[in-house]
Amino acid sequence: GMRILQQGGNAVDAAIAAWGMQGLVEPPSTGLGGDMFIILYDAKTKSVKVINGTGHAPAKATIEFYKANGGITGSGPLATQVPAAPAGAVLAVETFGTMPLSEIWAPVIEAAENGFPVSDGLANSIAGAAEKLGQYESTKKIYFGADGKPLKAGDILVNGDLAKTLRVIADEGWSGFYEGSVAKMFADYSASQGGIITEADLKGVQAEIVDPVKVNY
Fold first, then answer.
1. What distances in angstroms separate CA 125 from CA 118, 158, 213, one per listed residue?
2. What is the pLDDT of residue 76?
């Protein structure tokens, strides 16, 4: 975030940069697979706006479907909604930012491609979720070492796939995540793991700018 401010970006540019980096180095906290809510004060107009990036449930996620599949699960491909965070990030930058996403996410892409040292906090998170992460080759290859064991503090974590996805979003905007190759890969992987998020579900995601709910007390 500081790097983006030093390059002339505004607070929104810096916030989206910091959010992107946190998704890489503190993945339990946030990331492309979640939601995004921004409360923003515009000093020029002296107004407060909210960017609402709330993901919806997949179209197939009906009560009947979950009853037939043992109920709502707390993890795995049937536990997730359709991600809206990328839509929120793009909308925030396009509406209130001053720099292109390619510059805003340059530090994140750099760290993802070149690797970064795992912190104590991330090492503890990986260890605590090792059983879940180890079930999927896609997460195991990122959060486990060549010895097949969870990464420890000080180990270097590389996430080249995240760098590729961020670069596509930076180049193509909203459609970079919700249409095209990334959306197809997302939907195909979801289906292969028993999930129900489809390309049509992804295409239906839109973040919006709304007035905040407020009350005087």
1. 11, 16, 34
2. 86
